[in-house]
Structures are given as C-alpha cells and as structure tokens.
C-alpha cells in the first residue's frame, strides 16, 4: 500500500478474530519499530512478543478485555536510564509498528491507558526487570466487523502561517 493510504486507513480496532500470524510478519512489524527515530539514536527500547494463549488471556483479564481476542501481542519495553527521551522514543516506535501492522492487513490498538495502572503486575507476570518501564502493548489480529474511523481535526483549523493566528489555508 502507498504510505499515505496506510496512514489514512490505520485506526484503533478493539475486536479481533484469531488468525495465524507468520513469524515473518512479526519480524516486519518489529523491524518497522526498530527503524523509528529516537533521541540521539539511543533506541532505549526492547520488544516482547507474546503468543502464549494463557498469557494473552491473562493480559485481557488484567488490562483490557479485547486483548484476549488477539493472536499475538507485542509489548514495548523502555529503559528510562538510557535516555530522557524514552517516552517520545517508544511513541515513535509504536506508531511505526501500528503502520506496519495496518500495511500487513492486521488490526491493532495502542493500549497504554489501561496498562499504566497495572504496569507493576504485568511486569512481574512477564518477568520484565523492575527498573524498566512497560506501558504500551499492541494486540494484533484480524479486525472483527466494521469499525468506523474517528473524526480528526481539520488541518485548516490547526495550522498557522509564519505567525500564530495567521491562516495557512
Ligand atoms: C497514548 C495513548 C494511549 C492509549 N491508550 C489506550 C488504551 O488504554 N485503550 C484503548 O482502547 N485505546 C487506547 N488508545 C487508543 C486511542 O483511544 C485512539 O488512538 C484514539 O481514540 C483515536 O482513534 P484512532 O486510533 O482510531 O485514530 C491510546 C492511544 C494513545 C496514543
């Protein structure tokens, strides 16, 4: 797909059909994540691929129901000791992965809000070292049903020209 089509098509999906996701596809998603920009190119992140049924079910119970319908879950682990930009870095990584997931014909959702309050518990479950942060997971599957796209702000309303308040469009 054309890059702009992928960007336009991507949307948060919270209902999945189980499907077989080949390791090559997971590799492409991880590669896309690894190629994201990061402050001083420190890349203070690691990934965890979760395909164990019991773990996926547990994540669904503890974090957000829809996760249990995913075929694979990718988690992004951050090491704040490596960079003060760790949050921005994992955000860029996450968006790259979401676009790769869309391009490969799967669906996903950036899960962070519901993971944050459970971070400690989930880190223990997945044996992630205490000093690392684990705040974003991406459930991956085939979209179940039709999901409408969210409305976005019109660029005409949010873009200024040279000086704030001057219209660009
Ligand atoms: C930082 C961040 C945290 C989010 N946390 C959650 C979450 O915990 N659960 C969820 O269902 N969606 C979560 N989302 C997805 C947003 O709700 C979604 O991106 C937003 O509603 C816009 O919809 P769209 O992704 O389809 O454009 C999160 C997105 C971001 C960027």
SSE blueprint and pairings:
Blueprint lengths: L2 H7 L6 E2 L5 H12 L10 E6 L2 H10 L9 E7 L7 H18 L15 H7 L7 E8 L1 E2 L11 H4 L1 E2 L1 E5 L2
Helix pairs in contact: 2-4
The chain binds flavin mononucleotide.
Characterization of this structure:
34% of the residues lie in helices and 19% in strands. With 169 residues, the chain is of the alpha+beta class. The strands form 3 sheets. It has a 3-stranded antiparallel beta sheet with strand order 2-3-4, sandwiched between helices. Strands 1-5 form a two-stranded antiparallel sheet. The chain starts with a helix and ends with a strand. It binds flavin mononucleotide. Residues 11-12, 14, 64, 109-114, 150 line the site of flavin mononucleotide.
What characteristics describe this protein?
globular, 169 residues, binds flavin mononucleotide, 3-stranded antiparallel β-sheet, alpha+beta
CATH class: Alpha Beta
Ligands in the model, by name, code or SMILES, are: flavin mononucleotide
Low-confidence stretches: none
What oligomerization state is this entry in? single chain
- Reported by name, the CATH topology is NADH Oxidase
N-to-C SSE string, H for helix and E for strand: HEHEHEHHEEHEE
Nearest-angstrom radius of gyration?
A: 17 Å
Number of helix segments? Answer: 6
What is the overall shape? globular
State the domain count: 1
- What is the CATH superfamily? NADH Oxidase
Structure summary, number of beta strands: 7
